[in-house]
Amino acid sequence: METQLLEGKKLAEKMQSEMKVRVNSLLEKGKIPGLTVLLVGEDKASQVYVRNKERQATKVGIKSEIIRLPETISEAALIEQVEQLNEDASVHGILVQLPLPKHINEQEVLRKIDYSKDVDGFHPMNMGNFLLGNASALPCTPYGIMELLKAYDISLEGKNALVIGRSNIVGKPMALMLMEKNATITIAHSKTKNLKELAQQADVLVAAIGRGHMITGEFIKPGAVVIDVGMNRDEAGKLIGDVDTASVMGIASYVTPVPGGVGPMTITMLLDQTIKKVEAE
Ligand SMILES: Nc1nc(=O)c2c([nH]1)NC[C@@H]1CN(c3ccc(C(=O)N[C@@H](CCC(=O)O)C(=O)O)cc3)C=[N+]21
Ligand SMILES: [Mg+2]
């Protein structure tokens, strides 16, 4: 079987060029979408991600700002920053870059964001509404994956979908979105005993494990759609996914590359949700 790449980067570029048009029509009405990112500490990967977000936001016409805060900031002081942004009418989207330092309770900070400015979909109000089927903001990574599947006309109805990973930001919302499209979902995690067998039955496999190249061709049902959420570094510092892409070639029907697959879609959904906040005003 010939395996096709799901080219997230290309779709992201197309969607972002459509966003420029949307932002321009907002500008004509005197509205400038604003996105502010709070970045705590010096984590190298976070620095790169945040700079990427800012660059792409700026490219589509979103006014984007990064507030850099010291690793040692207290939870109370970080919450104070969040509350200031809640009050700032020029800020439509607030993103607190995760992970936060260990002494800070992430959930406590996220729940202090005005949920109407939560463009990550991580606020409990948005998570709850999403669970109930009327979301106003969605977690960007699974949302981007759904857009990618839609763009390639991949049907989910009646398919066996396996999500490996159960995080609040990827695994859990991913499973729910696949279920909404009438897939039969299974969620696997670090305590799952028969992972390979489950994987071999999956028509759609989403790998969000955090272990480089763990999913090889022998896990893959012939013709399966393979989505790689992994962002790992190999010994040489090169970005690699959870899926050993080369080894699933010829087995899967589709696979997302890393880089160039899920990552660019995540950022694009963040921009989309920021613009939507202003469009809805
Ligand atoms: N509040 C919050 N929201 C997030 O959405 C969030 C977060 N915290 N913390 C970290 C993760 C990670 N994340 C990525 C998004 C895009 C790429 C991306 O664009 N990756 C490129 C390659 C980048 C590279 O070369 O390093 C690609 O896959 O092609 C990566 C990682 C968002 N996250
Ligand atoms: Mg923490």
What are the SSEs and their pairings?
Layout: E1 4-5, H1 8-28, E2 34-40, H2 44-60, E3 63-69, H3 75-87, E4 93-96, H4 106-110, H5 124-131, H6 140-151, E5 160-164, H7 171-180, E6 184-188, H8 195-200, E7 204-207, E8 225-228, E9 232-233, E10 239-240, H9 245-248, E11 254-255, H10 262-279
Helix pairs in contact: 1-10, 6-7, 6-10
The structure holds 5,10-Methenyltetrahydrofolate and magnesium ion (MG).
The site of magnesium ion (MG) has 4 residues, from loops.
Stated plainly, the CATH topology of the largest domain is called: Rossmann fold
Distance between the termini: 48 Å
Biggest beta sheet summary: 6 strands, parallel
Spatial strand arrangement across the major sheet: 1-11-8-7-5-6
DSSP E strands, number: 11
Structural class: alpha/beta
Helix content: 40-55%
Number of domains: 2
Dominant shape: globular
CATH architecture of the largest domain: 3-Layer(aba) Sandwich
CATH superfamily of the largest domain: NAD(P)-binding Rossmann-like Domain
Low-confidence stretches: none
What is the tally of helical segments?
10
User: What fraction of the residues are assigned to beta strands by DSSP?
Assistant: 15-25%
User: Could you say which small molecules are bound to this protein?
Assistant: 5,10-Methenyltetrahydrofolate, magnesium ion
- C-alpha Rg (nearest Å): 19 Å
Q: What is the residue-mean pLDDT, rounded to a whole number?
A: 97
